[in-house]
């Protein structure tokens, strides 16, 4: 077996790209059936709020000291990269918001064996469908679409279930010095950082396999 831990945020475009690139690489990996993938929470902005959020281009411009034209060009560039791997990045419709509660539901989905489905559903909701990933009504609908029990989801959102799991992921990220995502940690030693192309990820997987499975 070979374990891959992935830290990711729902509102991170490179995390959606990285997820898809990883899936493409994994499909080509000879030992893919022996890879265990574990997803971990990471919040780029723990203070984010949907109700007072600037449009995405303006927010990116302010955060990275860009003018609006540069910010728009950056988003269009990401959209082109996304399209190359079959993703629709409708950044103009994105409802930037706080991802903490969505991360809690993803932990619940993981406990139900639906980690990958939840990661895909929430990222697609945000980047492609322009849906809220903060408001509970929207989170409930997204969760229901991947078959999670609505009553259990309501109970989680109404309390603090899985909050410690999210914070534990973030503490480990801090201990590892992770400042940007996606962050792939293979066999607890080898790092693949960022939305690397599928070929680069595949090369990394092959290299680690060869190193850890010597005759």
Automatic annotation (TrEMBL):
Gene3D superfamilies: Glutaredoxin
Single Gene Ontology MF annotation: oxidoreductase activity
Descriptive protein name: DsbA family oxidoreductase
Transmembrane segments: none
Domain of life of the organism encoding this protein: Bacteria
Occurrences of domain DSBA-like thioredoxin (ranges): 3-203
Signal peptide from the UniProt entry: none
């Amino acid at each position: 077996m070979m374990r891959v831990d992935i830290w990711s945020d729902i509102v991170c475009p490179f995390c959606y790209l990285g997820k898809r690139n990883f899936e493409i690489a994994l499909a080509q990996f000879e030992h893919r059936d022996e890879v265990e993938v574990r997803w971990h929470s990471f919040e780029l902005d723990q203070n984010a709020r949907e109700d007072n959020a600037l449009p995405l281009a303006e927010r990116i411009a302010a955060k990275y000291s860009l003018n609006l034209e540069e910010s728009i060009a950056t988003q269009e560039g990401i959209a082109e990269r996304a399209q190359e791997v079959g993703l629709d990045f409708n950044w103009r419709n994105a409802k930037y918001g706080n991802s903490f509660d969505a991360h809690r539901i993803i932990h619940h989905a993981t406990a139900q064996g639906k980690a990958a489905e939840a990661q895909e559903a929430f990222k697609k909701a945000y980047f492609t469908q322009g849906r809220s990933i903060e408001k509970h009504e929207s989170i409930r609908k997204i969760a229901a679409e991947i078959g999670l029990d609505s009553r259990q989801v309501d109970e989680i959102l109404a309390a603090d279930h899985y909050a410690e799991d999210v914070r534990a992921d973030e503490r480990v990220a801090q201990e590892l010095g992770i400042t940007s995502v996606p962050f792939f940690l293979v066999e607890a030693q080898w790092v693949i950082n960022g939305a690397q192309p599928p070929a680069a990820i595949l090369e990394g997987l092959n290299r680690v396999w060869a190193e850890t499975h010597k005759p």
